[in-house]
Amino acid sequence: MFKKLAIIFVAVFGVLLAVPTLAPSLAPYFPSWIQPISLGLDLKGGAQLLLEVDTDTMFREKGMQLYDDVRSALIDRDKGVIRFSNLRNNDGVVSLVVREEAEVSDAKGRLRSVLGDSVDISSDDKTLTLAYTAKAKEEMVQDALARSIEIVRRRIDALGTKEPSIQSQGGKYILIQLPGVDNPERIKELIGQTAKMTFHLVNENVTQEQLSSGHAPKGTEFLPFMDAPDQKIPVYTRIEVSGESLKDSQADFDQHNMPVVTTTFDATGARKFAKLTTDHVNERFAIVLDGKVLSAPTIREPIPGGRGQISGGFTLQGAKDLAVLLRSGALPAPLQVIEERTVGAGLGADTIAAGKVASLAGMIFIMIFMIFCYRAFGVIASFVLVVNLAMIIGISALLGATLTLPGIAGIVLTLGMAVDANILPFERIRDEIREGVTPLRAVEAGFHRSMKAVMDGNLTNLICSLVLFQFGAGPIRGFAVTLSVGVLTTLFTCVSLSKVIIDWYMNGKNKKIGYVKNK
């Protein structure tokens, strides 16, 4: 008795999970963890972006980093300076000439200990050539892709965009689907910015003539103001504080009620920022974002504690967007939008309507067939089929799955396959009665002896759907999710629940089973 009550309880609970989806007006009366199923891009409408990780730019930056690492390793005063000349970086390949032939071996050993196995080091007489290995470059691309996906996800989530689908595609591409987003321009701007923030001192010794000519002194570069690109600021190339030390950033208002961005550094960043502002009082420093100067304020007094403030004539929305960018972190490489597609909500509504019609039509034809062939047992099977549909929708919503057009196809396919789980025991019951077994014993034997075939068929489908989920992407995974849930609910409703209802219908008596004709 307890087993039957548990089966009925699970069935009722599964149906209740589907109520917010099937009757949205009742959703406010349900707990927050029971919500309508999320609709995908093809059903709800929205935007789809395909981004490419700019690996060429990334490798150029890595080459510059390798150049700096080589230089630092060879002029390490603690280990001794190894004299060299003609240090060059040519498309990521760094070369140099060691002045003393006796120091070539020491130079190679020191560079190997600093750079590790990720760099190939070759020598020709006193000339050393260094370049990243193919394996290291592949690892850089995969790491950049994984980090870019996570950063893009944090930026989009911070904007309040619900149910975004963000996944890798083709090695260096990122596919983003944003249901319900009609205008993706602002999102494109946010996710397209590298958001690499650095703090530099301003070179006050540069003359106006040098600025006009564009010839920057060694160790200095001319960067444009973000709000006035024609105005150049001479900043030292040396990074005083890196944005990687940034712990938090928020939009706020200053004492004049103007939008600003407040920043908080971690322990290392706070120490460097305090030293910068202590050693350079009454000097200017530049806050640089993606190669453009946000602002270049004068340091009036030391700023301890690791808290700073960025102002620059922001609007409130601009301050919020910049805070999101800085808080989510800098992209390891620029992202290029190579494809953009917008799906209208009207098309999504038409798709949902077509899906409803297909599902209802399929269910009605199946129910007519079952009732015609199996009489009262067919009515029971039809009722169980409706419960099965509700449980698929309810459990998918509970798991946070997103319903797509292929998902609807998976539901319709599941309903068709669910018929087998009823037909097999019903036909076995017919065979048992023809052999002279009483109806009650025939029901028990029919369900028991058909169980192996039912389990084999459904487990095969489950294995296939799990393989599709593991190796598929996008719509294929949506199809696999609904198919997997459908297989599990089919085994429960069409075997366990159906048996409980038939036992209740038989009521312990050898009633005549209408669809069986005795010989």
Give an overview in words:
A hairpin with a 2-residue loop joins strand 3 (84-90) and strand 4 (93-98). The mean pLDDT is 84. The chain has 519 residues and is α+β, with helices and mostly antiparallel strands. The radius of gyration is 34 Å and the shape is elongated. The chain has a 4-stranded antiparallel β-sheet. A 4-stranded antiparallel β-sheet has the order 3-4-6-5. A 4-stranded antiparallel β-sheet has the order 12-9-15-16. It has 3 domains: 2-42 and 344-506, Multidrug efflux transporter AcrB transmembrane fold (Up-down Bundle), CATH 1.20.1640; 57-131, Alpha-Beta Complex (Aspartate Aminotransferase, domain 1), CATH 3.90.1150; 195-328, Gyrase A, domain 2, CATH 3.30.1360. It has 13 helices and 19 strands. Helix 10 packs across helix 11.
Strand percentage: 15-25%
CATH superfamily caption of the largest domain: Multidrug efflux transporter AcrB transmembrane domain
Task: Tell me the helix content.
Answer: 40-55%
Task: Give me the number of helical elements.
Answer: 13
Average residue-wise pLDDT: 84
| Class by alpha and beta content | alpha+beta
CATH topology grouping of the largest domain: Multidrug efflux transporter AcrB transmembrane fold
